[in-house]
Amino acid sequence: MADLTHPELRDLSIDQDLALRTAAVRLASEFTGLYGPETIERFLHTSYDQFATAHTVPNYLPLLAERFARQRLQALARVEGHHQDGKPVVLFLCTHNAGRSQMALGFFTALAGDRAVAWSGGSEPGTTINPAAITAMAERGIDITGEYPKPWTDEIVRAADVVIAMGCGDACPVFPGTRYENWEVADPDSLTPEQVRPIRDDLERRVRTLLDQFAIPAS
């Protein structure tokens, strides 16, 4: 049940409240035996908070909150040793999580398939994916329209084997024992698809090199 005393949830519409309650049930089912209702609701509510002030489509917020809460719980399960599948985990970070990190994530997911796990985040998440990045990736047959800008959280960073930073500078989180790489990649913000293509191609080369380091042949 959604806690209506929670600061960001007091003004929920009936539809939003129902959507969050339904999301809590789904997540509880997925993480049965790992996390109880209180943990599920806490992650769902704090995930909702992350988007409530930035996104302007209220009816979409519960879905974003559920997706982000699911990712955070999956990360927590890895950190706590509940999920050990041996797959490497890569986290791509940039400023707005709208261009570079999303394109890198798109390439990594398409090329690695189910042999690795990849997430992305931003220090100052935007509200939409860069349209020029979407167009440039579509030219490579990769659809990134299903992604969305989001922040990172401690459990997501701690779950990563490799953190790839692109332009987030001192805002990028650092945890001992985690491998970090800084990719000097131009920011595609406000660029045309034609201008984004060299950035896209640079990211593809870097992702392929990363996969080689993991000994994962590209699909």
From TrEMBL:
SUPFAM superfamilies found in the cross-reference section: Phosphotyrosine protein phosphatases I
Organism this protein belongs to: Actinoplanes derwentensis
InterPro entries in UniProt: Phosphatase-like_N, Ptyr_pPase, Ptyr_pPase_sf
Keyword presence, Cell wall biogenesis/degradation: no
GO term, biological process aspect, one: response to arsenic-containing substance
Residue ranges of every copy of the Phosphotyrosine protein phosphatase I domain listed in the record: 88-213
The keyword Aminoacyl-tRNA synthetase is annotated on this UniProt entry: no
Descriptive protein name: Protein-tyrosine-phosphatase
Entry-linked SMART domains: LMWPc
Swiss-Prot/TrEMBL keywords: Arsenical resistance
Domain of life of the native organism: Bacteria
UniProt feature coiled coil, ranges: none
